[in-house]
Specification:
With 449 residues, this protein is α+β, with helices and mostly antiparallel strands. The protein contains 16 helices and 9 strands.
Length: 449
């Protein structure tokens, strides 16, 4: 091929210049970048030839729908992983559906970008701490020059599909029909900073009663098949998948339930719903996971134990505070929540602190059945919500809670959806679905109606 021969000649000239030792010859500092640019130019040309062949085949087979007619042959500059290339394809127009190029849809082009480039750019945009950093990283590591705003626009373009993806109802690629001994469902909420217009009329914790953040719900599903030699639960390797959105608990519950069903909830011998004790999450669990054993995270229980003791002793600096907190931990792990509550009430009876202590004890009264930690550990269950807590930091916090960030709801949801599918190792499945969706927008091979 003349094109490939020309590129081989360019590479040979580059090698000759480097070996010549001339004053203007490439140095060891920049020669790799020059070689990459030459190879990328070849790669863009090869991809362009293959895409053009597909476009020609699609255009030859396409049959316009009623009211649609061929308007002209148009050229577009397609951006791919290796640079850009020209693509010629047919443009059709109708008064009903407007204009479109069937070849663009068949090739999965997004605003002139190839599917592989869109995937990489969206991944960088979601995984880096900012779109600006994604811009620099793409340029430095991949030689892809793309403005931060362009990266953001591509993420927003893909966003609606991202939001629909968790509800697809497909089994994961590694799913098996075998029963699952224990399937865990966990959820938590965390606030992210929002633009002012997104916070109008919302109450918050600021001194003026206003809010600076909005809550994001993150949910995860994982499985457990065994315990270790000491009887402690072992989470199955790479079994955790995530879903996230900014709707309320009533809307988020079915989304998390769909993910649990997709992960094999119907084949689970036991289901465990593990949360921090918040009333909204408790209700969500009762509605969407009625057969699950609910467990209040042990570490949140210990935080509340600290509040009880601070109210009882005066504050956390009391000499007995740490010792008594350790005693609480030991007794809670022996199913002692009921006796603890009774003992504290007896101790503070007739004291000035009784009202403050009683307020804190309500948490334990309400959650007694969900705090039988001795029984839970005997059954080999996790009693800590570390998985979802870590997810809030990695999936949400590392991208959406950086200094100076202020999000729109759609912007945050689209980025979080990308991060959730990536953390769930579902990236390949999503982009295959996305390509199929693009192709289905207008079937490139039609018959006349």
């Amino acid at each position: 091929d003349p094109f490939l021969a020309a590129q081989e000649g360019e590479l040979q000239r580059l090698v000759d210049r480097f070996l010549s030792g001339a004053q203007d010859a490439p140095t060891v500092l920049n020669v790799e970048g020059l070689v990459r640019a030459a190879l990328y130019q070849t790669g863009a040309g090869v991809v362009g030839m293959m895409f053009q062949a597909v476009a020609d085949r699609v255009d030859a087979a396409y049959r316009p729908r009623t009211g649609e007619y061929f308007k002209q042959r148009e050229s577009i500059r397609v951006q791919c992983l290796f640079g850009s290339f020209a693509l010629e394809r047919n443009y059709y127009w109708s008064a009903t559906h407007g204009g479109h190029c069937p070849a663009d849809e068949a090739l999965g082009l997004e605003a002139g970008h190839s599917p592989a480039r869109v995937r990489l750019v969206c991944l960088e945009g979601a995984d880096e701490t900012s779109f600006e950093k994604a811009q620099r990283h793409l340029e430095e590591t991949g030689g892809i020059a793309m403005d931060a705003r362009q990266i953001q626009r591509l993420v927003q373009r893909v966003g609606p599909t991202l939001q629909a993806w968790p509800g697809r109802g497909e089994e994961p690629s590694d799913a098996t029909p075998a029963s699952i001994p224990i399937l865990y469902i966990s959820a938590d909420g965390t606030g992210i900073p929002m633009r002012k217009e997104e916070l109008l009329g919302r109450k918050g914790k600021q001194p003026d009663g206003k809010s600076k953040t909005r809550q994001v719900y993150l949910g995860c599903v994982f499985t457990q098949h065994k315990t270790d030699g000491l009887g402690r639960p072992v989470r199955d390797w790479e079994s955790t998948t995530y879903v996230a959105n900014m709707q309320n608990a009533d809307a988020f519950g079915p989304l998390l339930r769909n993910e649990a069903i997709r992960r094999g909830m119907g084949n689970a011998v036991r289901q465990v719903f593990l949360v921090d004790g918040a009333s909204g999450l408790e209700a969500m669990g009762r509605i969407n996971f009625k057969d699950a054993i609910q467990i209040v995270d042990f570490y949140h229980a210990m935080e509340h134990a600290g509040l009880v003791l601070a109210a009882l002793l005066g504050d956390k600096t009391h000499p007995d505070y740490k010792h008594r907190l350790r005693q609480w931990a030991k007794r809670l792990l022996r199913n002692g929540v009921a006796n603890l509550v009774a003992d504290v009430r007896k101790e503070c009876a007739e004291k000035a602190c009784a009202s403050a202590v009683e307020e804190q004890l309500h948490y334990f009264d309400h959650n007694r059945e969900r705090m039988q930690y001795g029984t839970f550990r005997k059954n080999g269950f996790f009693i800590g919500s570390g998985v979802i807590e870590a997810g809030c930091k990695t999936v949400v916090g590392q991208r959406c809670k950086q200094s100076g960030m202020f999000w729109s709801q759609s912007g945050a949801e689209h980025v979080l959806a990308l991060r959730a599918i990536h953390a769930s190792r579902q990236t390949d499945g999503f982009w295959k679905f996305r390509l199929e969706q693009c192709s289905a927008q207008s079937n490139p091979i039609q018959t006349t109606a």
